[in-house]
Amino acid sequence: MSKDQRLRGYYDEQLETLPWDEKKRILENQLQRAVMTAFQEAPAMREKLQEAGVGPTDIRSFEDLQTISITPKAQMRQLQQASPPFGGFLGVEPDKLRRIYSSPGAIFDPEGHQADYWRLQGVFFNTGFRPGDRVLNTFSYHLTPGGLMCDEALSGIGCTVVPGGVGNTETQVQLMAELQLTGYVGVPSFLQAIIERAEQDGKDFRKDFHLEIAVTAGEMLTDLSRRRLEEDYGILVRQFLATADVGAIGYECGQKNGMHFADFRVVEVVDPETGKQLGAGQVGEVVVTLLENPVYPLIRFGTGDLSYYEEEPCPCGRTSPRLMKLLGRVDQVTKVRGMFIHPSQVQEVIAAFPEIQAAQAVVEREQDTDRLTFRVVLGSSPEGLASNLQEKIRSVLKLRADVAFISEGDIKEPDKLILDLRKWD
Ligand SMILES: [Zn+2]
Protein backbone atom coordinates (compact mmCIF):
# COMPACT_ATOMS: atom_id res chain seq x y z
CA MET A 1 0.00 0.00 0.00
CA SER A 2 1.33 3.46 -0.83
CA LYS A 3 2.10 6.04 1.83
CA ASP A 4 -0.51 8.32 0.32
CA GLN A 5 -3.20 5.71 0.78
CA ARG A 6 -2.16 5.24 4.37
CA LEU A 7 -2.33 8.91 5.17
CA ARG A 8 -5.54 9.69 3.31
CA GLY A 9 -8.82 9.86 5.17
CA TYR A 10 -9.90 10.15 8.77
CA TYR A 11 -11.00 7.78 11.48
CA ASP A 12 -13.90 10.09 12.30
CA GLU A 13 -13.94 12.84 9.71
CA GLN A 14 -16.76 14.85 11.18
CA LEU A 15 -15.33 14.97 14.68
CA GLU A 16 -11.73 15.48 13.61
CA THR A 17 -12.39 18.30 11.18
CA LEU A 18 -15.04 20.21 13.10
CA PRO A 19 -13.96 23.85 13.59
CA TRP A 20 -12.13 23.95 16.93
CA ASP A 21 -14.61 26.33 18.56
CA GLU A 22 -17.49 23.99 17.77
CA LYS A 23 -15.51 20.95 18.80
CA LYS A 24 -14.56 22.66 22.03
CA ARG A 25 -18.24 23.09 22.81
CA ILE A 26 -18.82 19.36 22.34
CA LEU A 27 -15.83 18.58 24.53
CA GLU A 28 -17.11 21.00 27.16
CA ASN A 29 -20.47 19.23 27.20
CA GLN A 30 -18.65 15.96 27.69
CA LEU A 31 -16.57 17.63 30.39
CA GLN A 32 -19.68 18.64 32.31
CA ARG A 33 -20.83 15.01 32.25
CA ALA A 34 -17.38 13.81 33.32
CA VAL A 35 -17.32 16.18 36.29
CA MET A 36 -20.81 15.06 37.30
CA THR A 37 -19.74 11.40 37.17
CA ALA A 38 -16.55 12.13 39.08
CA PHE A 39 -18.47 13.99 41.75
CA GLN A 40 -21.13 11.34 42.14
CA GLU A 41 -19.12 8.14 41.76
CA ALA A 42 -15.45 8.71 42.63
CA PRO A 43 -14.93 9.76 46.28
CA ALA A 44 -11.37 11.02 45.76
CA MET A 45 -12.47 13.22 42.87
CA ARG A 46 -15.45 14.48 44.85
CA GLU A 47 -13.10 15.52 47.65
CA LYS A 48 -10.90 17.39 45.20
CA LEU A 49 -13.87 19.22 43.75
CA GLN A 50 -15.13 20.12 47.20
CA GLU A 51 -11.68 21.34 48.21
CA ALA A 52 -11.79 23.65 45.21
CA GLY A 53 -15.22 24.81 46.33
CA VAL A 54 -16.94 23.64 43.16
CA GLY A 55 -20.14 21.66 42.82
CA PRO A 56 -20.88 19.05 40.15
CA THR A 57 -22.30 21.63 37.75
CA ASP A 58 -19.79 24.44 38.22
CA ILE A 59 -17.20 23.27 35.69
CA ARG A 60 -18.55 24.32 32.32
CA SER A 61 -15.49 25.19 30.27
CA PHE A 62 -11.84 24.29 29.80
CA GLU A 63 -10.95 27.49 31.66
CA ASP A 64 -13.06 26.46 34.67
CA LEU A 65 -10.91 23.37 35.06
CA GLN A 66 -8.12 25.53 36.45
CA THR A 67 -9.82 25.75 39.84
CA ILE A 68 -9.31 22.01 40.38
CA SER A 69 -5.95 20.83 41.67
CA ILE A 70 -3.89 18.46 39.54
CA THR A 71 -3.46 14.84 40.58
CA PRO A 72 0.15 14.06 39.69
CA LYS A 73 1.02 10.61 38.43
CA ALA A 74 3.90 10.68 40.91
CA GLN A 75 1.37 10.73 43.78
CA MET A 76 -0.86 7.96 42.46
CA ARG A 77 0.94 5.11 44.21
CA GLN A 78 0.64 6.87 47.57
CA LEU A 79 -3.02 7.75 47.02
CA GLN A 80 -3.82 4.18 46.00
CA GLN A 81 -2.09 2.77 49.06
CA ALA A 82 -3.98 5.15 51.32
CA SER A 83 -7.29 4.01 49.84
CA PRO A 84 -6.77 0.70 48.07
CA PRO A 85 -6.83 -0.36 45.40
CA PHE A 86 -7.60 2.68 43.22
CA GLY A 87 -7.30 5.59 45.62
CA GLY A 88 -11.00 6.41 45.38
CA PHE A 89 -10.70 7.45 41.73
CA LEU A 90 -12.71 4.57 40.31
CA GLY A 91 -16.20 5.45 39.07
CA VAL A 92 -17.59 1.90 39.17
CA GLU A 93 -17.41 -1.09 41.51
CA PRO A 94 -14.13 -3.02 40.98
CA ASP A 95 -16.10 -6.09 39.85
CA LYS A 96 -17.20 -4.12 36.78
CA LEU A 97 -13.62 -3.96 35.50
CA ARG A 98 -12.37 -6.00 32.62
CA ARG A 99 -8.72 -5.96 33.60
CA ILE A 100 -6.48 -4.51 36.28
CA TYR A 101 -2.90 -3.70 35.37
CA SER A 102 0.11 -2.83 37.47
CA SER A 103 2.35 -0.26 35.82
CA PRO A 104 5.90 0.78 36.70
CA GLY A 105 5.85 2.58 40.02
CA ALA A 106 3.38 -0.08 41.22
CA ILE A 107 0.38 1.96 40.09
CA PHE A 108 -2.82 0.01 39.46
CA ASP A 109 -4.57 0.92 36.22
CA PRO A 110 -8.19 -0.07 35.63
CA GLU A 111 -9.71 -1.01 32.28
CA GLY A 112 -13.44 -1.06 31.64
CA HIS A 113 -15.45 -3.23 29.30
CA GLN A 114 -16.43 -0.62 26.73
CA ALA A 115 -15.10 -0.97 23.21
CA ASP A 116 -12.01 1.07 22.39
CA TYR A 117 -11.55 1.82 26.09
CA TRP A 118 -8.14 3.51 25.56
CA ARG A 119 -9.29 5.47 22.48
CA LEU A 120 -6.40 4.19 20.41
CA GLN A 121 -8.36 3.02 17.37
CA GLY A 122 -8.46 6.53 15.94
CA VAL A 123 -4.80 6.98 16.81
CA PHE A 124 -3.77 3.92 14.83
CA PHE A 125 -5.95 4.70 11.84
CA ASN A 126 -4.80 8.30 11.68
CA THR A 127 -1.11 7.39 11.99
CA GLY A 128 -1.53 5.16 8.92
CA PHE A 129 -2.53 1.60 9.80
CA ARG A 130 -5.20 0.15 7.55
CA PRO A 131 -7.39 -2.96 7.63
CA GLY A 132 -5.39 -5.93 6.43
CA ASP A 133 -2.10 -4.80 7.97
CA ARG A 134 -0.23 -7.53 9.80
CA VAL A 135 1.30 -5.82 12.79
CA LEU A 136 4.06 -6.87 15.15
CA ASN A 137 3.14 -5.44 18.55
CA THR A 138 6.25 -5.26 20.72
CA PHE A 139 4.80 -3.50 23.74
CA SER A 140 4.65 -5.57 26.90
CA TYR A 141 1.67 -7.87 27.40
CA HIS A 142 2.74 -8.48 30.96
CA LEU A 143 1.27 -6.49 33.88
CA THR A 144 1.23 -3.11 32.10
CA PRO A 145 -1.54 -2.28 29.61
CA GLY A 146 0.75 -1.29 26.69
CA GLY A 147 0.58 -4.57 24.79
CA LEU A 148 -3.11 -5.24 25.16
CA MET A 149 -4.21 -1.64 24.62
CA CYS A 150 -2.44 -1.54 21.26
CA ASP A 151 -3.46 -5.08 20.38
CA GLU A 152 -7.18 -4.44 20.78
CA ALA A 153 -7.14 -1.09 19.05
CA LEU A 154 -5.31 -2.55 16.05
CA SER A 155 -7.65 -5.49 15.75
CA GLY A 156 -10.51 -3.06 16.29
CA ILE A 157 -9.64 -1.30 13.03
CA GLY A 158 -9.20 -4.54 11.11
CA CYS A 159 -5.49 -5.28 11.47
CA THR A 160 -4.08 -8.70 12.30
CA VAL A 161 -1.85 -8.57 15.35
CA VAL A 162 1.21 -10.67 16.13
CA PRO A 163 1.67 -10.34 19.90
CA GLY A 164 5.46 -10.19 19.90
CA GLY A 165 5.88 -8.54 23.29
CA VAL A 166 9.21 -7.30 24.60
CA GLY A 167 12.64 -8.69 23.73
CA ASN A 168 13.51 -11.88 21.80
CA THR A 169 14.98 -9.91 18.95
CA GLU A 170 15.83 -12.98 16.95
CA THR A 171 12.31 -14.38 17.14
CA GLN A 172 10.87 -11.00 16.19
CA VAL A 173 13.11 -10.86 13.11
CA GLN A 174 11.89 -14.29 12.13
CA LEU A 175 8.24 -13.38 12.67
CA MET A 176 8.61 -10.21 10.69
CA ALA A 177 10.20 -12.01 7.75
CA GLU A 178 8.23 -15.26 7.63
CA LEU A 179 4.82 -13.76 8.29
CA GLN A 180 5.56 -10.87 5.90
CA LEU A 181 4.49 -8.35 8.51
CA THR A 182 3.60 -4.90 7.20
CA GLY A 183 3.44 -2.98 10.49
CA TYR A 184 5.35 -2.45 13.71
CA VAL A 185 4.22 -0.97 17.01
CA GLY A 186 6.72 -0.35 19.81
CA VAL A 187 9.63 1.82 20.86
CA PRO A 188 11.79 3.14 17.99
CA SER A 189 15.05 1.72 19.38
CA PHE A 190 13.69 -1.82 19.33
CA LEU A 191 12.77 -1.53 15.68
CA GLN A 192 16.34 -0.40 15.02
CA ALA A 193 17.57 -3.44 16.94
CA ILE A 194 15.37 -5.76 14.87
CA ILE A 195 16.68 -4.27 11.64
CA GLU A 196 20.28 -4.49 12.83
CA ARG A 197 19.85 -8.12 13.82
CA ALA A 198 18.33 -8.93 10.43
CA GLU A 199 21.27 -7.28 8.70
CA GLN A 200 23.78 -9.09 10.89
CA ASP A 201 22.15 -12.30 9.74
CA GLY A 202 22.92 -11.28 6.18
CA LYS A 203 19.40 -10.24 5.22
CA ASP A 204 18.56 -7.24 3.08
CA PHE A 205 15.86 -5.52 5.12
CA ARG A 206 14.49 -3.52 2.21
CA LYS A 207 14.19 -6.54 -0.06
CA ASP A 208 13.52 -9.47 2.23
CA PHE A 209 11.05 -7.76 4.55
CA HIS A 210 7.68 -6.16 3.92
CA LEU A 211 7.55 -3.58 6.68
CA GLU A 212 5.70 -0.49 5.46
CA ILE A 213 4.70 1.32 8.62
CA ALA A 214 6.01 1.75 12.14
CA VAL A 215 4.12 3.63 14.83
CA THR A 216 6.18 4.32 17.91
CA ALA A 217 5.73 5.56 21.46
CA GLY A 218 7.38 5.24 24.82
CA GLU A 219 10.67 6.89 24.03
CA MET A 220 11.93 9.89 22.12
CA LEU A 221 11.81 9.40 18.36
CA THR A 222 14.78 11.46 17.23
CA ASP A 223 14.76 13.17 13.84
CA LEU A 224 17.83 11.17 12.94
CA SER A 225 16.27 7.84 13.78
CA ARG A 226 13.06 8.70 11.91
CA ARG A 227 14.99 9.85 8.87
CA ARG A 228 17.03 6.67 8.86
CA LEU A 229 13.95 4.45 9.04
CA GLU A 230 12.08 6.46 6.42
CA GLU A 231 14.86 7.10 3.96
CA ASP A 232 17.09 4.05 4.30
CA TYR A 233 14.32 1.51 4.76
CA GLY A 234 11.28 3.14 3.19
CA ILE A 235 9.15 2.76 6.32
CA LEU A 236 6.42 5.27 7.15
CA VAL A 237 7.17 6.33 10.73
CA ARG A 238 4.70 8.09 13.00
CA GLN A 239 4.47 8.46 16.76
CA PHE A 240 1.80 8.78 19.39
CA LEU A 241 1.59 9.64 23.06
CA ALA A 242 -0.35 7.50 25.52
CA THR A 243 -0.01 6.48 29.15
CA ALA A 244 -1.08 3.44 31.13
CA ASP A 245 -3.42 5.67 33.14
CA VAL A 246 -5.32 7.60 30.50
CA GLY A 247 -4.61 5.81 27.20
CA ALA A 248 -4.38 8.01 24.08
CA ILE A 249 -3.23 11.62 24.46
CA GLY A 250 -1.94 12.59 21.02
CA TYR A 251 -0.90 11.30 17.60
CA GLU A 252 0.92 12.47 14.49
CA CYS A 253 -0.98 12.86 11.24
CA GLY A 254 0.51 12.72 7.75
CA GLN A 255 2.09 16.13 8.23
CA LYS A 256 4.50 15.02 10.95
CA ASN A 257 4.23 18.39 12.66
CA GLY A 258 3.30 17.53 16.22
CA MET A 259 0.72 15.27 17.82
CA HIS A 260 -2.94 16.21 17.48
CA PHE A 261 -4.82 16.02 20.77
CA ALA A 262 -6.68 12.70 20.81
CA ASP A 263 -10.47 12.75 21.06
CA PHE A 264 -12.52 12.16 24.22
CA ARG A 265 -9.97 13.94 26.37
CA VAL A 266 -9.24 17.45 27.51
CA VAL A 267 -5.52 18.00 27.09
CA GLU A 268 -4.02 20.96 28.92
CA VAL A 269 -0.46 22.26 29.14
CA VAL A 270 -0.03 23.93 32.52
CA ASP A 271 2.49 25.77 34.62
CA PRO A 272 3.89 22.99 36.84
CA GLU A 273 3.91 25.29 39.88
CA THR A 274 0.52 26.96 39.68
CA GLY A 275 -1.51 24.50 37.58
CA LYS A 276 -2.68 27.41 35.41
CA GLN A 277 -3.17 26.80 31.69
CA LEU A 278 -0.43 28.03 29.39
CA GLY A 279 -0.83 29.43 25.91
CA ALA A 280 0.49 28.09 22.62
CA GLY A 281 4.25 27.71 22.54
CA GLN A 282 4.73 27.78 26.31
CA VAL A 283 6.38 24.79 27.91
CA GLY A 284 4.56 23.07 30.76
CA GLU A 285 3.16 19.81 32.07
CA VAL A 286 0.70 17.80 29.98
CA VAL A 287 -2.46 17.30 32.02
CA VAL A 288 -5.33 15.07 30.88
CA THR A 289 -9.00 14.84 31.80
CA LEU A 290 -10.85 11.75 30.56
CA LEU A 291 -14.21 12.26 28.89
CA GLU A 292 -16.95 9.67 28.31
CA ASN A 293 -15.16 7.30 30.67
CA PRO A 294 -17.41 6.47 33.62
CA VAL A 295 -14.98 3.78 34.76
CA TYR A 296 -12.11 6.12 35.55
CA PRO A 297 -13.41 9.70 35.67
CA LEU A 298 -10.02 11.35 36.11
CA ILE A 299 -10.16 15.12 36.14
CA ARG A 300 -6.78 16.82 35.63
CA PHE A 301 -4.37 13.92 35.78
CA GLY A 302 -0.77 15.21 35.67
CA THR A 303 1.18 12.97 33.30
CA GLY A 304 4.55 14.44 34.33
CA ASP A 305 5.45 14.93 30.64
CA LEU A 306 6.71 18.33 29.52
CA SER A 307 5.65 19.72 26.20
CA TYR A 308 4.04 22.69 24.49
CA TYR A 309 1.30 22.96 21.90
CA GLU A 310 0.64 24.83 18.69
CA GLU A 311 -2.79 25.66 17.39
CA GLU A 312 -2.36 27.09 13.91
CA PRO A 313 -4.35 25.07 11.35
CA CYS A 314 -2.84 21.78 10.20
CA PRO A 315 -2.90 21.06 6.45
CA CYS A 316 -4.35 17.61 7.21
CA GLY A 317 -7.67 19.26 8.06
CA ARG A 318 -7.82 18.10 11.66
CA THR A 319 -8.57 20.98 13.94
CA SER A 320 -7.30 19.88 17.33
CA PRO A 321 -4.13 21.59 18.59
CA ARG A 322 -0.88 19.66 18.44
CA LEU A 323 1.56 18.75 21.17
CA MET A 324 4.98 19.46 19.83
CA LYS A 325 8.17 17.89 21.13
CA LEU A 326 8.22 16.01 24.40
CA LEU A 327 10.84 17.80 26.45
CA GLY A 328 11.39 15.46 29.38
CA ARG A 329 9.73 15.06 32.73
CA VAL A 330 8.34 17.71 34.99
CA ASP A 331 10.44 16.59 37.95
CA GLN A 332 13.52 17.63 35.97
CA VAL A 333 12.32 21.19 35.61
CA THR A 334 13.94 23.98 37.60
CA LYS A 335 12.83 27.58 37.90
CA VAL A 336 15.59 30.16 37.64
CA ARG A 337 14.77 33.85 38.09
CA GLY A 338 11.17 33.10 37.22
CA MET A 339 11.93 31.07 34.07
CA PHE A 340 11.56 27.32 33.80
CA ILE A 341 14.64 25.56 32.47
CA HIS A 342 14.63 21.90 31.49
CA PRO A 343 17.27 19.37 30.46
CA SER A 344 16.41 19.41 26.76
CA GLN A 345 17.25 23.13 26.63
CA VAL A 346 20.60 22.49 28.25
CA GLN A 347 21.09 19.69 25.75
CA GLU A 348 20.23 22.06 22.90
CA VAL A 349 22.85 24.55 24.05
CA ILE A 350 25.54 21.89 24.41
CA ALA A 351 24.73 20.29 21.07
CA ALA A 352 25.60 23.53 19.29
CA PHE A 353 29.23 23.26 20.46
CA PRO A 354 30.99 20.10 19.29
CA GLU A 355 34.03 21.02 21.38
CA ILE A 356 32.04 20.48 24.58
CA GLN A 357 32.53 17.01 26.03
CA ALA A 358 30.20 17.34 28.98
CA ALA A 359 28.33 20.11 30.73
CA GLN A 360 25.98 20.80 33.55
CA ALA A 361 23.86 23.82 34.38
CA VAL A 362 24.28 24.61 38.06
CA VAL A 363 21.78 26.77 39.92
CA GLU A 364 22.87 28.48 43.12
CA ARG A 365 21.48 31.22 45.27
CA GLU A 366 23.52 34.21 46.37
CA GLN A 367 22.03 37.08 48.35
CA ASP A 368 18.47 36.30 47.28
CA THR A 369 19.41 36.04 43.63
CA ASP A 370 19.55 32.89 41.51
CA ARG A 371 22.89 32.33 39.89
CA LEU A 372 23.10 30.08 36.84
CA THR A 373 26.45 28.65 35.80
CA PHE A 374 27.18 26.33 32.90
CA ARG A 375 30.06 24.15 34.04
CA VAL A 376 31.69 22.89 30.90
CA VAL A 377 34.25 20.18 30.16
CA LEU A 378 36.13 20.77 26.91
CA GLY A 379 37.96 18.56 24.50
CA SER A 380 39.94 21.58 23.22
CA SER A 381 39.50 25.22 24.13
CA PRO A 382 39.02 27.47 21.12
CA GLU A 383 38.89 31.20 21.64
CA GLY A 384 35.62 32.98 22.03
CA LEU A 385 33.79 29.89 23.18
CA ALA A 386 32.66 31.37 26.47
CA SER A 387 30.91 34.32 24.86
CA ASN A 388 29.40 32.19 22.06
CA LEU A 389 28.11 29.84 24.70
CA GLN A 390 26.60 32.67 26.72
CA GLU A 391 24.88 33.98 23.64
CA LYS A 392 23.41 30.57 22.87
CA ILE A 393 22.25 30.16 26.48
CA ARG A 394 20.50 33.53 26.26
CA SER A 395 18.73 32.55 23.07
CA VAL A 396 17.57 29.12 24.26
CA LEU A 397 16.96 29.66 27.98
CA LYS A 398 16.21 33.40 27.89
CA LEU A 399 18.57 33.70 30.84
CA ARG A 400 21.97 35.16 31.42
CA ALA A 401 24.48 32.60 32.73
CA ASP A 402 28.10 32.37 33.73
CA VAL A 403 30.32 29.85 32.02
CA ALA A 404 32.96 27.92 33.95
CA PHE A 405 35.39 25.57 32.30
CA ILE A 406 36.16 22.62 34.54
CA SER A 407 37.72 19.19 34.25
CA GLU A 408 35.61 16.10 33.96
CA GLY A 409 36.26 14.84 37.52
CA ASP A 410 34.79 18.07 38.90
CA ILE A 411 31.24 17.43 37.65
CA LYS A 412 29.02 16.55 40.58
CA GLU A 413 26.13 14.12 39.98
CA PRO A 414 27.12 13.69 36.33
CA ASP A 415 23.81 12.07 35.41
CA LYS A 416 22.06 15.42 35.92
CA LEU A 417 22.00 18.09 33.23
CA ILE A 418 20.68 20.59 35.75
CA LEU A 419 22.01 20.64 39.29
CA ASP A 420 20.01 22.76 41.71
CA LEU A 421 22.13 23.63 44.74
CA ARG A 422 19.79 26.23 46.23
CA LYS A 423 18.67 25.80 49.81
CA TRP A 424 15.39 27.29 50.83
CA ASP A 425 15.30 26.88 54.62
ZN1 LIG B 1 -2.58 17.24 11.09
Structural write-up:
With 425 residues, this protein is of the alpha/beta class. It folds into 2 domains: 332 residues, ANL, N-terminal domain (Rossmann fold, 3-Layer(aba) Sandwich), CATH 3.40.50; 87 residues, ANL, C-terminal domain (GMP Synthetase, Chain A, domain 3). The chain has 13 helices and 21 strands. A 9-stranded mixed sheet has the order 5-4-6-7-8-9-10-15-14, sandwiched between helices. A 4-stranded mixed sheet has the order 1-13-12-11. The chain has a 4-stranded mixed sheet with strand order 20-19-18-21, with helices on one face. Strand 9 and strand 10 form a beta hairpin. The longest helix is centred in the N-terminal third of the chain and has 22 residues. The chain is globular and about 60 Å long. The chain binds zinc ion (ZN).
What's the gist of this structure?
The protein is α/β, with parallel strands linked by helices.
Structural class: alpha/beta
Instruction: Give a short account of the largest sheet.
Output: 9 strands, mixed
CATH topological fold name of the largest domain: Rossmann fold
Say how many strands there are: 21
Query: Helical percent range?
Result: 25-40%
Radius of gyration: 23 Å
End-to-end Cα distance, whole Å, is 63 Å
Beta content: 15-25%
Q: Architecture of the largest domain, according to CATH?
A: 3-Layer(aba) Sandwich
**Total DSSP helices:** 13
